[in-house]
Design a protein that fits this description.
The complex is a heterodimer of chains A (277) and B (177).
Chain A: H1 3-21, H2 25-68, H3 85-88, E1 90-94, E2 102-107, E3 115-119, E4 122-126, E5 142-147, E6 150-152, E7 160-162, H4 166-178, E8 182-192, E9 195-204, E10 231-238, E11 247-254, H5 260-271, E12 275-276
Antiparallel strand pairs in A: 1-2, 2-12, 3-4, 4-5, 5-11, 6-7, 8-9, 9-10, 10-11
Chain B: H1 4-8, H2 15-39, H3 43-60, H4 70-88, H5 113-124, H6 128-138, H7 144-151, H8 155-176
Classes of the chains: A alpha+beta (277), B mainly alpha (177).
Amino acid sequence: MNAFERTLATALRDEAGEIAMSTDINAGREALDDKLDNVDRGRRRWLWGVGAVLVAVAAVVLAFVVTSRPVARPAPPVDRVTPSPSATLAFRVETSLMTPNVTADLPYWTALASNVDQGVGYDVFDQFDCGSSPCPSDKQLKIRFMTVKQMYRPQDGRTMTKNPSFSVYTDAWLSVMARGAATITDKISTTVGGRPAVAMTATFSQDVLGLAMCQRETDAPTDCFYPQKARTYRLAIVDQGAGRPPTLFYESMNADNPAPSAVISEFDTWLSTVRFV
Amino acid sequence: MRGADDAQGSADLPRSARAAVTSLFHVHYRRLVGLAALMVDDRETAEEVVQDAFEQLYRRWGSLRDPGAAVGYLDRSVVNGARSRVRRRYTERSFAPPREGSVVSAESVGIDSRQRDDLVAAVKELPQRQREVIVLRYYLDLSEEQIAQWLGVSPGSVKKHAHRATATLQRRMEAWA
């Protein structure tokens, strides 16, 4: 560290220290207690919900066995049915800052994601780093929704593309393969929420700054959402019609995910529940 | 590998979970508010970010493999939370001109309160990503590789942002001198 860097470090530590010392820890503790009480209440509600689902499933299975068994023969023993919550439960989300807004039944892990964020034109659900390499297949996943009002095309450098059409935006994603930044597979035409869309799987070998979406017209490429190297993106771009910004949905995973097909299947499942409101 | 049930956290968390989180709160709350305040512009938001980090820690306590890693988890959670808040803040940050009469030397190691205030104000005027890099590098003492991992960018990008930021800050300080 040179003299300037030491000055800078000292300034930052002094500033943080002053703020820390003048922080009211008692008020903070009260607020924390309220939050933890809410967490406990949520857990109890969740348990009651899971219990109700299990009871309902067990009742249905029991009813089925009872009504289908031959009258004259004793019924075979009934296996206990314990569905996996991740397989049976979904977390219903409804955006409020996108154009148009979206409802979707996301996998349950999104309700517990370490980073859930919402802003004008986007919603994100990120799992925390798993802390090992490679991560287990169901860890370090990210689901994101975006209304693409502006972005950077790879060929345009630092010139922002405002109000990209569906075809311009889709071509920008596809162009990364020709530029050697990603490998794209599984490209198909489909529909999402009743609207035309293109879906694909893209594995990036380098960051492509600004490609996904920029929130503001003044954002530099590094301030935007963009695909990152060593990540695989299962994505769908939805055509909202002429003059309307396309919508991007994706679920991303580490490129060394040991079971990418499971994540792709998860994406396809929740994408099928997307509705525009 | 933990199943979905474990990820939710057991309904009967060990009684020590709440006590452990509360204990961590008393030890680290103020320090973390200081960290968050360097990344967002007001104390209220900084306190909310830190509260949220502790709430997340409590939610995930049951799936934390190593409770000893909780402090690192909190640091990172606060950084992520602060970044989210800044990104969410839609309005542009207005430029606040530096105070007149500053006499900060870029070469000096000693620092008085006015110099410190001017330098901190200049850090807060940096573009968001540069500001994040500077705080992580010079407040948390993270390496470029660690910062790259935390921010999800390449080490080269971190180096670039750090270089630009320090150049900007040095120019500012020289202009004020």
